[in-house]
What does this fold into?
Amino acid sequence: MEDHRLKAFCLIIETGSFSKAAEAKFMTQSAMSHLIRNLEDELGVKLLNRQGKAVTPTPAGMLFYDHAKKILEEYRNMEHAVYSFMQTVKGPLSLGASHTAATYLLPQVLYVFLKRYPDVRIALSVSGTEKVINNIIKGKIELGIVEGQIKNTPVILEEIAEDEIVIIASDDNPLTKKKDISRQDLEEQIFIMPETGSGIREFIEAFLHSMGIDPECLKVSMTLGSPELVIQMVQSGLGISFVSKWSVFRSLKEGSVALLNIPGKGMKRKFFFTCLGGEPQTHVAKTFREFIRGYRFFIPF
It folds into this structure.
């Protein structure tokens, strides 16, 4: 439940673009412009400055935005209060997830959850673990699914699944013929690495330090933000890489990549459900928390 004109206006301010706001609302850009013109005509004041493709709020527009955000929040609170009173699992659920969790864990979870609760509307944002947590703290999302080593955070973290980071190479890489690989083997290889600042990159660098390898001394040919693209580059023979076992299951089954083994060196990490405070605020969020607590995840291998 929301006022579509207020929502549209807030999206324009937050994205800085009529086209991006229209895309988020599944509207045409002309329809979005028409909504804003109606608002400005009704109020008798200019709300937005349009300079080419750039859109910025006027002083009146900024004041209007602040009030619009509060009104939209009250709409959500009212909706959640009614559904909670009726014990109805219905309404919006804002969820954030790290890239690996969103791609490999959540599809199976959300499929079953929405079959059980078809009146829930999920808004899923995908970003790095740190940003997911920051968005929860700022109140932009209610719940998150993240992974990795997370320290000094005010959010509640609850383990829901285990992950393992593995080293992969193309099926024709000479290292695949070796039962075990050594520190020297790694130092001689060309690497494709996850992006700097990501949870998996920090995890990998800590692991390399534990082996006595300076990550700065590795031969890194490229840095990529997409786990799928990392795997494709490894398949092409452009280097070896560290990836989540969840992301590489299909490629291993197809035989297009192979695992490299470092004896005695496991790289385990956890996936966590996270929220701010001890209890989610809405009935939908509470229901999702209980659902994912009891969910039995498929383990890749």
In short: The mean pLDDT is 87.
